[in-house]
Amino acid sequence: MTTDSVEDPGSAMVVTGKITPWFIKRMLMMLGLFVFLSGFFFYDWKVGYPAKKAEYEAAMEEYTKFSDEKERLVAIGDQQGVEAAQKAWVDLSAEKEWEIDRVDLSPDNEVTSDDIQEQFNFGVGSGVLAVGVLIWMFLNLGKKLSVDGDSVTLPNGRNVKFADIHKVDTRRWGNKGLATIYYKDQAGSKGSARIDGLKYGGFIKPEPFIADQILGRIVQGFDGELIELQEEDETAPNE
Known about the structure:
By secondary structure, the chain is of the alpha+beta class. The protein contains 5 helices and 8 strands. It has a 4-stranded antiparallel sheet with strand order 1-2-3-4, covered by helices on one side. α1 runs antiparallel to α2 and α1 packs antiparallel against α3 (113-141).
């Protein structure tokens, strides 16, 4: 990525940066993630958590029997009976693969109706996010960023004349493909806009990359402050 000009800024030829495959791939990955999460949570709501709830209730039923028997044995002073009942309960929980507290031997990991409802809520939330990503992707598919001989047209349709731009910040262009322009139009309205090279135009061969052409045209066409990333001079003596 470079901010060097690749064209004569006075050229009337329009350079247009359309939505890139990188952006679409990124949106599809996010969509896939939220769809997966939604399905995962709905499965737990419908199948996973109800099964865990039933398992916990079965464990509690057997634990209640053990507790009642333990109290009876303690009341008559049958210590051997208490130990035998306790061992039988521990063995049963191990056989059934029930998780129990190692102190009071009560079943662990209680699953309530609220826990099941929470999974449903997460499933709906993830589904809403998936729909949001899908809508956002389609809303952006027709957008573009373009420059001509004397202006840049932003993705929102606003046209900014090079003459109205007073500052361009390119410090994040080299590693993130991002730059920011600051402008003030004839009516005195101030504004700023992000030039997203990865999203519009991109850096796919052949060179010169479309994104570089767009930024290069802006840098060459405006008359103001250019903020660039200053690399350290490795040959400079240490202070």
